Amino acid sequence: MLNESPPPDEGDLVYRRCKSAKLWMCALASFASIDWNLEHLKESCNALQLKALFNRLIHFCFPERNLGINDDAGVVVFDRFQEIASRLNKPERLFAAWFYAMWILKMDVDGQFPEVVAKPSVSNPAATYDARLQSAEQIRNCVIEHRQKSKDAVDLLEQLLALDSIREFNVPQMDAFLGDIFKEFEEETQDLASVSAIDPNVIPKPNFETPLVVLNKVDWRILTNHTLLCYHFAYNNLSKAENLLVQIVADWPRRSEGFGTQNSMADRMTYINPQEIGGYCIAFEMTPPEGIQLTAANREQEIFMASEYDDEWIKKLGESDCTMLAFDSLFAPKMSPKLSLDFLIETKREEMAYGSLIMPEERRVICANETSVRKFIEILLRRMSNIRTRESERMQLGVFIQLFAFLDPLFAMELAKIEKATGRALTFLSAESVQFPPVDPLPDQSVFKDILSGGPAYWRLLLSYDVNEIKPLFAQLGAKFKLPYWYQPSKMIGEVLLPAIAGQQCYEYIAMLLGKLEALAKIGFVDATQWTEFGNDCVKELGAIGRNQDVQMRFTYDAVRVKLDKWIRNFPSAPSEAGAFLNATKNLQNIVQGLVQTSATMPSSSLETVISMLLQIVAFLINTAEWDFILKSSPKLKSPFLDIAKVLAAYMTGDPVMRKKVADEAWWKIMHVTFEDPSGKRRNDGSSVRDRTNLLISRPQFLQLLRVIKVSLIFIVKN
C-alpha cells in the first residue's frame, strides 16, 4: 500500500498562494497590455478562462469580500443590498464593475449566434468518456450561466449612466499589476542577504495608486451606450435601441480628439467601428454623426468595364462546353445586350438539363428575334449531342425543345429550318395529332337532389346524419343491415367505447353512429357545427355510458383532433376569407397549447389520449413555427413525433440550454445506429447485429410526419 503524502504545512500554503497571486497578476498585466481588448482576448481564451480572469480582477478590487477562485463574481458586482455609490467608492472598483458588466453583455450578444457544435472524439460518447465533449459542455454551461446575468448588467450600466458624479473613468495599466513583483525582484537581486528580511506571509497585490489611464465622461458614455445599443438591438428592443442611438449621435461631436485612434491606450480602448454606427443609423433612418459616411447596401459599385467587347471571345464561349452557373448581378446591367443574352442562354441551358423550368420573361428575352432563337437551339443541340451528357439530361432537353415549339411560333419555325438543314427530326409530336377524349357534360343539379333525398331505406340510412331519421330506419331494417366496412369509428373513441358495449343489442347501432361521425371528419365538413351536433347526438344515444367522464373527455379530445386534421388539410391553401382562417388558427393555438401545458398534471388515461393525437399536435406546432413551445413541452409527453420535432426546433431556436438537452437525448438516439459497437453480437459471417430498438422514430412514422409538414410555407400567428 502506498504511503499518502503528508498535508502541506502553513509555509507551503502561503508559498502557493503567493505564487498563484503572482501568476494571476501577470495574466491581468497581459490583459492590460492589450488595452483591455475583449475581442482580441476572446480569440485566444474561452469563456471559462475569461470567467477566471474576471474573478481574480474582482477579487483584487474587492479584497474584503474574500472571493474564491470558483465563486460567482456577479454576487459582488451586482450586490443589491448596498448602494452603488458606497459599493463602487474607489476608481478600480468602478472600473472593474463597469468592465465586468460590459463583458456580460458582449457575451450575451455573441450567444445569439449559433454555437460551434463540438464533435465527439470517440465512437460512443454516451458510454465512453470524451474529454472534448466534456470541455465543450463546461464552456456551454459557463456561457449560459453568465447570459442569465445580462439584466443585472444592464441595470448596473444604466445606473452608472444616471450618476452625474462620475466625471471620468480611471483604467489600470500594466504597471499596477507588475509593480510589487518587480519591486520584490529588484530587492532580491540587489542584496541576496536581504531575502530573509522579506516577509514571506505578505501575498502580493496590485497597486492601484500607480498612474491610471483616464477615460473622459463623453467617451465612456459613448462606449457604454454602444454596448447597450447592441444588446437591445439583438433582443429586438427597438425603442430602447433607438433612444440609445439618439444619445450616441448627440454625444459623438463632443468625443475626445483621439477617440478610437491608435495614439494612446485611452484612444484604443474607445474604438468603435464608424460603419457600425452608420449601419444602425440606416436601420433607424437617422442622420449619422458628422464624419461617418453611410454605405448603402444597394450603392452602385465601381468596377472595371472594357470599352469594347471581344466578339471573338464571345463566339468561343458560345461554341465551348463551359458551364456558366454563376452570374454577377452587379456586372450584368453594365454588359452589352449581346453578352447578357449569351450568359442567359448558357445559364438556362444548364438549368434545363437538370429539369428547371424557364420563367416566361426569360423565354420572351430568348425568343425575341430569330438570331437569339437559333443560337439557343444550337446550344441545346450541342449539349444533347455531347458524349459526356447523361441520357436523363438528353431526355430533359428534348422535352423542353418540344415544349418551346408548342409555346412559341418563332421557336417552332427556326426548329423546322434546323431539322430541314440537318435532316434530324427534333419534334416528335405535332399539335394537330393530339386527340382529347370527349368530356360528358355535368348532369343537372336536380338529379343530385333526387338522389340525395329519396330512395330505399338502406340508401337513406347511409346518407342521413339526422339521428331522428337514422333510428327508425335502422329499426325498420333490423337484422338485414350489416355495418359497411368503411364505417370505422375513431380510434380514440372506439377503443374504449366499443368493448364496453360488445355483445349488447345496440352494438351495431352505436358502431354505425360512430362510423358516421368519423366519416364526417374524413370528408371534411365546412365548419365544426355539423360534427359537434352529430357528436352530441351520439353521446345522448349512449345513455348512461355517455355520461361517463372518460367517454366525454375522449369525445372532446377527438373534436380537437378533427379540427387539427381539417386545419392541416387546408394549410397553407387558406380559404378565400383569410380572416376566418387566422381566427381558427389562433383558437387552435390556444387549445393545443392548453392541452400540452396541462399534460404535466393529467391523469394517465387523459395523458394517453393526448399522446394518441400527438402527430396532429406536432404537425400544427411545426407548421406554425412554435419552436420554443415544442422544446418546453412536458417531459411526460413521449412520442417519436415530438422527439423529431425537438430535434428540428433545436436548430431553429437560440436557447443553448434546450439545444444541449436535445443533443444529449434525442440526437444520440438518431446517431446510435451510425456507430458500431465492437463488443456487440455478431453474425456467423462476422457482421455486427445492430440494435434497432433505440431508434428515435420508425420509417412509417417518419413518413407520416413528413406528409403533414407543409415545408413550402411557415405560417406564424402573432399574439
UniProtKB/TrEMBL annotation:
<dbReference type="InterPro" id="IPR057980">
    <property type="entry name" value="TPR_INTS8"/>
</dbReference>
<dbReference type="GO" id="GO:0005694">
    <property type="term" value="C:chromosome"/>
</dbReference>
<keyword id="KW-0539">Nucleus</keyword>
<dbReference type="GO" id="GO:0032039">
    <property type="term" value="C:integrator complex"/>
</dbReference>
<protein>
    <submittedName>
        <fullName>MYND-type domain-containing protein</fullName>
    </submittedName>
</protein>
<keyword id="KW-0158">Chromosome</keyword>
<dbReference type="InterPro" id="IPR038751">
    <property type="entry name" value="INTS8"/>
</dbReference>
<dbReference type="Pfam" id="PF25756">
    <property type="entry name" value="TPR_INTS8"/>
</dbReference>
<dbReference type="GO" id="GO:0034472">
    <property type="term" value="P:snRNA 3'-end processing"/>
</dbReference>
<feature type="domain" description="INTS8 TPR repeats">
    <location>
        <begin position="453"/>
        <end position="714"/>
    </location>
</feature>
<comment type="similarity">
    <text>Belongs to the Integrator subunit 8 family.</text>
</comment>
